[in-house]
Amino acid sequence: MNxxxxxxxxxxxxxxxxxxxxxxxxxxxxxxxxxxLKPGNKGVYVFRADGDVIYSKPDEFRIEDIxxxxxxxx
Length: 74
What we know:
Largest sheet: 4 strands, mixed
Number of strands: 4
Radius of gyration: 11 Å
Number of domains: 1
CATH architecture: 3-Layer(aba) Sandwich
CATH class: Alpha Beta
Order of helices and strands: EHEEEH
Helix content: 25-40%
Strand order of the largest sheet: 2-1-3-4
Distance between the termini: 8 Å
């Protein structure tokens, strides 16, 4: 499974996206193919698993919910 985190550069979401990336990698290790960061703009903060959106701002951000969704998909 490949995870993509698209984040808004002008909004300063890089640190938040990098922390989420670290959490996903440390939780799933080799079960995940990649966890990539994709720079964006206009307030974007979206997580995709194999191209399917599993989180999108403005939904409440909870990394635990994202981790649970990934776990279910594995």
